[in-house]
Amino acid sequence: MPLAQNPLSVEVELPREDVALITVDGYLDVDTATEFQAHLANQLHHGRRHFLLDLSSVPFMDSSGMNIILRVYQEARKTEGSVHVISPAPAVRRILDLTGVSITVPISESVEEALTRVDEGPQQPGEPEGLNV
Asked: Which SUPFAM superfamilies does the UniProt entry name for this protein (predicted)?
């Protein structure tokens, strides 16, 4: 689909000095992935170590979006940082689960939950996620 029909909106907030909350709205696909990547690269350049990716308003994501999430995850881990996906739309959650990305990149239901996970420190790949009780 042409970019004009499915523009991507990306908003960046800084809940803390080293944490970037990236709220994405629109299709995250081959036509829009470069814009998403530019925002993440800018935040890495400015020293952000933790990335909270709110994908609740992303109805569709293809492998381009998924690859960018995995790349920022790898970059964040180099600085002992983290990446957390927040409240992905059902179709996006399914893609993350089917591809195994959700095993590597934690999924949180809220910004507060993701910030708590940031405070708890890095989770080792394959380690079960903590239960919220």
From this structure: SpoIIaa-like
